[in-house]
Design goal:
Oligomer: single chain
Shape: globular
CATH superfamily: P-loop containing nucleotide triphosphate hydrolases
Number of strands: 4
Helix content: 25-40%
Strand order of the largest sheet: 2-1-3-4
Radius of gyration: 15 Å
Length: 149
């Protein structure tokens, strides 16, 4: 499964972060590049993200695109998670409640910042880790932000 629009949004987020570093709005210690993991639960989305990333001109970020299973035990400065999945039947596939550990792995890799790109309405539609994360974000606006695109 892949979601081209979501991949474009994820890469665009990386471009904005890169530009922000270039304008010294975000200060990077020692002038080094930030390590970024671009994470997706499905192999086809990993391929789509990788394809979209080839068009990005990033000066201040070193980005690696990996599946959720491949990031187990990894750490990075920033992570971007592409939910990928969205449907009107509230079917979550590998993102559903029985697989909450996979969501935990995907969302706990970053030391400094996490961006989740996905369909918030879909993520809220069924009990589980993604709905819990959205609830947390909604109740902590001082440190989290939810944007509609």
């Amino acid at each position: 499964m892949s979601n081209r629009v979501e991949a474009q949004l994820a890469v665009r987020r990386l471009e904005v972060i890169d530009q922000t570093i270039g304008k010294n709005v975000i200060k990077v210690p020692d002038g080094r590049k930030l390590d970024v993991l671009l994470i997706a639960p499905y192999g086809r989305q990993v391929e789509e993200l990788d394809r979209q990333l080839t068009y990005a001109k990033l000066k201040y970020l070193t980005v690696e695109v990996l599946s959720v299973d491949a990031v187990q035990g990894r750490e990075c400065d920033l992570a971007v998670f592409s939910v990928t999945w969205s449907n009107t039947r509230s079917e979550f596939g590998f993102l559903g409640q029985p697989y909450w550990r996979r969501i935990n792995v995907a969302l706990s890799r970053a030391r400094f910042g996490l961006t989740i790109v996905g369909d918030a309405t879909f993520c809220r539609s069924t009990p589980g880790a993604l709905r819990d994360v959205l609830d947390y974000m909604r109740h902590h606006p001082e440190e989290c932000e939810i944007r509609d695109v």
